[in-house]
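quick one, 251 residues, struct below
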Amino acid sequence: MTSTIDLNADLGEDESPEAEARDIAIMDIVSSCNIACGGHAGSPESMRTMLTAARTRQIAPGAHPSYPDRSGFGRRSIDISLEELEACLTSQLQDISNMADQVGVPLTHLKPHGALYNDAQDDPALSGLLVDMAARAGLALVSMPKSLIQKKAAERNIRFIGEAFIDRRYTAGGRLLPRSEEGAVIEDESDRIVQGLTLAKGGALAAQDGTVLQVAAHTLCLHSDSDGALETARKMRMALEKAGIAISAVK
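---
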């Protein structure tokens, strides 16, 4: 059982006043965050707001780049050359890096978003591209354990942060169940808390087909756009601390 776990959230993906207030409130609970930087969502204004809030709350901010797919919120695999994708991701990373410099807070990690995140787990070209980007930027790489990304990061001596999800179901292969399938998103708050505690304690999860999985996680993610995300974040932190598990960004 781990005595410390990082709790992260994907933020800056909705620029409405209500969503912005929710995201900032979530930052009072989590220990790190992943900030949309223009591919699927986000703008210079939202990046500045989220980075400033992260600096004030002393939580670890990271870049959350995506396929260039704002209309699909980055949740669709798209037909794009590796060269085009590299240019797009590099631009996103440069935009948030420049804003972080202006705000005066260092970025700590890179976590791809949505379909790019899922596609890259077992794709040699995509995983290699993300590892190269993390290496050039001097950032840790957040992704799924037992993935090609983890293997390539280890080969390059890039710091890897294994991530698991409290609000998503898994396939028997240890990957996220596609959102298009029933039950992919865990709607019940108590079920989210149970899964988060199980993951933090190093326990076994049941995949969608009943297969038993072990997911070695350094950080637990919750999606800010899930229904009840703020309350789930509060209860998740309370449950972890009650179990004797401290919340802290990965050092």
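DSSP finds eight helices and ten strands in the chain.
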